[in-house]
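Reviewer comment 2.1 asked that we show a complete input and output for one of the modelled complexes. We chose the iron/sulfur cluster case, as it is the one discussed in the main text.
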Amino acid sequence: MSDSLLAAQTDICVKCGLCLPHCPTYLKTQNENESPRGRLSLIQGWARDELTASPKLTGHVDNCLLCRACESVCPAYVPYGQIVDRFRSATHEQPRSQPLSLRLKKSAMRGVLTGRTLAPLAGRLLSGSLAGATKSLAGLTGAGNLTDGLPPSSARPLPTPGSYPSGLAAEKGVVSLFQGCTADLADRDTVHAAIRLMNGLGFRVDIPERQTCCGALHQHAGESASAAERIRQNLQAFENPKSQAIVSFASGCGVMLREYDQTAPSEASSRFSERFRDISQFLAEQEWPGDLQLEPLPRTVCLHSPCSLKNVLRADRHAATLLNYIPGLKVVTLPAETRCCGAAGSYMVDHPDMAATLRDDVLDRIAEIQPTSLLTSNPGCAMHLRAGLKRRGLAHIEVLHPVALLARQLPG
Ligand code: SF4
Ligand code: SF4
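Response of the prediction step:
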């Protein structure tokens, strides 16, 4: 089946190969079919009706992490993420090279984590309040990695939808907070921290009740109709003319939210994408009141930059800026050549071997630094890395979001 748009988009690639040294799967396999250039050639062959979407061909494209490191260095501006999403959507019904059992696990995990009715149940199961059933859910969804990677359960419940005023007579404005599917499971403290910090800077925080999953897991799995339905619901939920920004603390969701205008072009999606900010970027862009002094913390922490924050949102510098507000804190960033940790949405579940291999490289760097905490802005990376640290006997390294650490250092 030819696809003229994909044929034209893949034709932008001039085959220079500059992306190859940045591609985690190519570096591990040294196989051109596992590189950006190779995958683009395969997709182009299919789009021009020269190749069929065989399990082997789709397998090479499905092995892509969608880390988009290639896109960030491409001199021809090949829209690599868009191309892969479109190809996966167009070939969604084709037989895949992955065993059926693995695809069922991936699908079950997506359903459990992102379903409105199932997510709270998953939270209770995975956090242990229904401990007897936890193992069976983990087995069903292949989520052993997730259960190992969950943070210690917070005593505080997830903030409910509603409006959280700053307490100031003259507020600076209103911000809408996107929570994502895993907030109750893994990010309660981050949500509390985000509200406290934005309130502290003078903003009222709104958590819209009708918000839903960003749609990223569906979009990247080729389920574009399911993703479109979630986009439609979020556009409605966040259409508040008084709110000046839509803020997310999960950079993986953030990429999807920022690109709503490309995935589903409309006036509403353009407004949405324009208002979107990653939480660290939003906080760093604000003027901090002179009397808002953070408590000192004489420790060394390691700052991990998720691919989504670094390669697509291009907002990885803001967390370091904010952490410098904490007196005495030593922030060590991972070396620039550090690649994707392998979490990559559902990749850690459906490509466990490659995900673990890539994680090992990141954990080696972290072990050299020996921080007290590892800070990362994406819940998927946090869970994957936390599980890896546990397996290495490094569970004493706490994994948390940079804003959670910042909020801890607020006075009082
Ligand atoms: S850097 Fe861009 S143009 Fe060059 S091979 Fe990679 S995708 Fe193609
Ligand atoms: S998105 Fe990442 S894994 Fe996929 S081809 Fe590009 S660099 Fe390689």
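The mean pLDDT is 90. We note this here for comparison with the apo prediction described in Section 3.2.
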